[in-house]
Amino acid sequence: MKRRILLGVLLLGGLLIGLVNAAGSISTQSCWTPWDHNSDVREWSQDEWVWASIHGQVLVCNGQFKMVLTDTVYGTATAKGMEWYHREIKATPSVAYAKVTYKRYSESQSKTAIASIPNYWR
């Protein structure tokens, strides 16, 4: 008799724990925070290149982008062998980007390399 009661309590406890875990996983499946990254690299020679890169997490709910988690964002923007360049890195909840505006010695106009997130869910 004691074994039956013990077995019943164990089965009921296992069922209860299973239901709690199942309920928790249902709510977490609708929203998730994947890592998103993007880069823009231009290279003309070993001593002449431009690089913009951004990396961070985004909040995606039901397959749609909601926001950039700005505290996870890391960006890099740099160049080598240019007449001049200006780098900018910005992270807001709606978009994060790394941008390099540059001018090559061999060209008359400036150009831009840009990497932004989100780039998967827009």
> Which regions contain 5 or more consecutive residues with pLDDT less than 50?
none
Largest sheet report: 4 strands, antiparallel
**End-to-end Cα distance:** 62 Å
Number of domains: 1
Beta strand count: 7
The helicity comes to: 10-25%
Using only CA atoms, what is the Rg?
Answer: 25 Å
Please report the number of helical segments.
1
Based on secondary structure, the structural category is alpha+beta
Shape: elongated
Proportion in β-strands: over 45%
Order of helices and strands: HEEEEEEE
What is the mean pLDDT? 84
Set out the fold topology.
Blueprint: H1 2-30, E1 31-32, E2 35-45, E3 48-61, E4 64-80, E5 84-91, E6 96-103, E7 111-117
Antiparallel strand pairs: 1-3, 2-3, 3-4, 5-6, 6-7
What would a concise description of this structure say?
This protein is α+β, with helices and mostly antiparallel strands and 122 residues long.
Describe the structure.
With 122 residues, the chain is of the alpha+beta class. The protein has one domain. Helix content is 24%, strand content 55%. The chain has 1 helix and 7 strands. Strands 1, 2, 3 and 4 form a 4-stranded antiparallel beta sheet that branches. A 3-stranded antiparallel beta sheet has the order 5-6-7, with no helix packed on it. Strand 6 and strand 7 form a beta hairpin. The model has no long low-confidence stretch (mean pLDDT 84).
